[in-house]
């Protein structure tokens, strides 16, 4: 991510901007030359950030609500898969000898998309 900022921009303004770009529910830590930029009222210039400087961005997800939402999503997905399995099991079996379908029957192909969710502890 490349940003063009004024050297008078405060660390707090930069962090707020990054939080808004990342969805807002994270704690942002900025590292410059192996030191955390803690003085949020200080400017980029006073922190030694110059044109072409590289800042490391550490994102710490806020624990609590996000974890609960991810767990709830996993539970819903598990229930959905169990429901799908039960529906498939309840379908009548098809005998290959009886598979003479008429030309007037319309078939639909259904694709099941599953989302992989990673829980961070």
Characterization of this structure:
This protein has 121 residues and is α+β, with helices and mostly antiparallel strands. It has a domain at 11-62. The protein has two helices and three strands, in the order H-E-E-E-H. The protein has helices at residues 11-21, 65-90; strands at 26-32, 35-36, 56-61. A three-stranded antiparallel beta sheet has the order 2-1-3, covered by helices on one side. A hairpin with a 2-residue loop joins strand 1 and strand 2. The protein is rod-shaped. It starts with 10 loop residues before the first helix and ends in a 31-residue tail after the last helix.
Which geometry do the CA atoms define?
Answer: rod-shaped
Approximately what portion of the residues adopt beta-strand conformation? Answer: 5-15%
* Overall average residue pLDDT: 72
Query: Would you count the extended β strands for me?
Result: 3
Write the element-wise H/E pattern from the N-terminal end onward: HEEEH
Major sheet: order of its strands? 2-1-3
Compute the number of helices. Answer: 2
Termini, distance in Å? 26 Å
Largest sheet: 3 strands, antiparallel
InterPro entries: Ubiquitin-like_domsf
Protein name: Ubiquitin-like domain-containing protein
Put the structure in a nutshell.
With 121 residues, the protein is α+β, with helices and mostly antiparallel strands. 31% of the residues lie in helices and 12% in strands. This is Ubiquitin-like domain-containing protein.
């Amino acid at each position: 991510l490349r940003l063009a900022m004024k050297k008078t921009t405060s660390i707090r303004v930069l962090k707020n901007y990054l939080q808004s770009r990342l969805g807002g529910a994270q704690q942002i830590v900025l590292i410059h030359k192996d030191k955390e930029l803690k003085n949020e009222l200080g400017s980029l210039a006073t922190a030694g950030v110059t044109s072409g400087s590289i800042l490391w961005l550490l994102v710490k997800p806020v624990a609590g609500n996000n974890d609960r939402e991810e767990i709830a999503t996993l539970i819903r997905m598990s229930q959905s898969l169990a429901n799908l399995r039960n529906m498939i099991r309840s379908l009548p079996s098809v005998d290959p000898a009886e598979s003479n379908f008429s030309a007037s029957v319309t078939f639909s192909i259904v694709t099941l998309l599953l989302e992989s969710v990673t829980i961070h502890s």
